[in-house]
Specification:
- Helix content is about 25%, strand content about 25%.
- By secondary structure, the protein is α/β, with parallel strands linked by helices.
- It starts with 11 loop residues before the first strand and ends with a helix.
- Homotetramer.
- Keywords: ATP-binding, Carbohydrate metabolism, Glycogen biosynthesis, Glycogen metabolism, Nucleotide-binding, Nucleotidyltransferase, Transferase.
- It holds the Pfam family Hexapep_GlmU.
- Involved in the biosynthesis of ADP-glucose, a building block required for the elongation reactions to produce glycogen. Catalyzes the reaction between ATP and alpha-D-glucose 1-phosphate (G1P) to produce pyrophosphate and ADP-Glc.
């Protein structure tokens, strides 16, 4: 085991829970798990958790996958294949499989770790950082590990500080003045305030730090309990709060910001509206999420593509993008783009307009199309003259229109529309 003078992150592993579908993203997760959904033009949602771990100094990682995992597994193989075992670095993708007899699937978040105990054992680590693979944020896990060791906690739980009226959507911590968790409540109707501000509450981020030896024993006990749902939030965390020492770690203490005065940034992009807004926010003059920070980069698979290209300079046929992000490989041919985000290898054609739209990679937008406040899935071909975002009732006949008026367009939707109109 490494000596006590090494960074705690070098004696830790990250276990990323990435098996969920993310059903509130609707058709965006029909063919991929939520952690594999594109974000910010070229990265995937899971890249944030993995990049945080890598930037924090963690070089041993495991990713538990389950729902429609192929896209996620392929991305991890292509974008995260630089770990070298001879340097004591590992990244293992762990699809649900019949490893322990009986169930094939992970039946809960804790069961996902329990089914892979032998693999975690092989890493020879002291600490395990359990992460959700489906949130957008930048965080230094070394600081959370340090608090965990300093307080002698059985579990340290990453927490957001949110207004009490918003906390009912989360698991909420009631803590004392030393940040020890007195009670853990799942989506309470009347969340408790914090000791320093009764109007704010501590909400769980789904990030947990354990000593591996402690968690290992707890997982074995939980697996033998027929009444357990084998879930961290429902079973293990309440048990530790009641019988051990659980401590809250405030996200504001370890959030990575390029501007010290900026607000701590964390987003759950779990709905079409939230996904659209978080992407569009990146086109702001000074986005809250800094993707340009070289000191804390978001690593991903980078395709070898040429720079973006803008062509034509005629009235109403000018290739231009204003307050927008355009990824590599795009060809903007006589298209007006405003407040939009385009993924890799998007091709747009003359007289088209994109306004407040999030376009995933490999989309083609044909002539005279007008797309306002849309999310367009990967690989879609937008037919010539299609207008979306001006008549919500007409849009809702063919596409999914969200509560806040964002229209999601997939190729299946367009194919059904074409068949019905032909």
């Amino acid at each position: 085991m490494p000596n006590s003078h090494t960074r705690l992150s070098s004696r830790a592993m990250a276990f990323v829970l990435a098996g969920g579908r993310g059903s509130r993203l609707k058709e965006l997760t029909d063919s991929r798990a939520k952690p594999a959904v594109y974000f910010g033009g070229k990265v995937r949602i899971i890249d944030f958790a993995l990049s945080n771990a890598l930037n924090s100094g963690i070089r041993k990682m495991a990713i538990a996958t389950q729902y429609k995992a192929h896209s996620l597994i392929r991305h991890c193989q292509r974008g995260w294949g630089f770990f070298r075992a001879e340097r004591n670095e590992y990244l293992d993708v762990l699809p649900a499989s019949q490893r322990m007899g009986g169930e094939n699937w992970y039946v809960g978040t804790a069961d996902a770790v329990h089914q892979n105990i032998d693999i975690v054992d092989s890493y020879n680590i002291e600490y395990i950082v359990v992460l959700a693979g489906d949130h957008i944020y930048k965080m230094d896990y070394e600081m959370m590990l340090q608090q965990h060791v300093d307080t002698g906690a059985d579990v340290t739980i990453g927490c957001l500080t949110v207004p009490r009226e918003e906390a009912s959507a989360f698991g909420v911590m009631d803590v004392d003045a030393s940040s020890r968790i007195i009670e853990f409540m799942e989506k309470p109707a009347n969340p408790p305030g914090t000791p320093d501000d009764p109007n704010m509450a501590l909400a769980s981020m789904g990030i947990y730090v354990f000593n591996w030896k402690f968690l290992r024993e707890l997982l074995l006990e939980d697996a033998a309990n027929v009444d357990s749902s084998h879930d961290f939030g429902n079973d293990l965390i309440p048990h530790i709060v009641k019988n051990g020492k659980a401590v809250a770690h405030r996200f504001s203490d370890s959030c990575v910001k390029s501007d010290p005065s900026a607000q701590a940034y964390w987003r759950d992009v779990g709905t079409v509206d939230a996904f659209w807004k978080a992407n569009i926010d990146l086109t702001d003059f000074t986005p809250e999420l800094d993707l340009w920070d070289h000191d804390w980069p978001i690593w991903t698979y980078s395709e070898s593509v040429p720079p973006a290209k803008f062509i034509h300079d005629e009235e109403k046929r000018r290739g231009m993008a204003i307050s927008s992000m355009v990824s590599g490989g795009c060809i903007i041919s006589g298209t007006e783009i405003r407040n939009s985000l385009l993924g890799t290898m998007v091709k747009t054609n003359s007289f088209a307009v994109l306004d407040h739209s999030v376009v995933l990679p490999y989309v083609t937008v044909n002539r005279h199309a007008r797309l306002i406040k849309t999310v367009i899935d990967r690989g879609v071909t937008i037919p010539e003259g299609l207008v979306v975002g001006e008549d919500p009732e007409e849009d809702a006949k063919w596409f999914r229109v969200s509560e806040k008026g964002v229209t999601l367009i997939t190729q299946d939707m367009l194919d059904r529309r074409e068949a019905a109109l032909s």
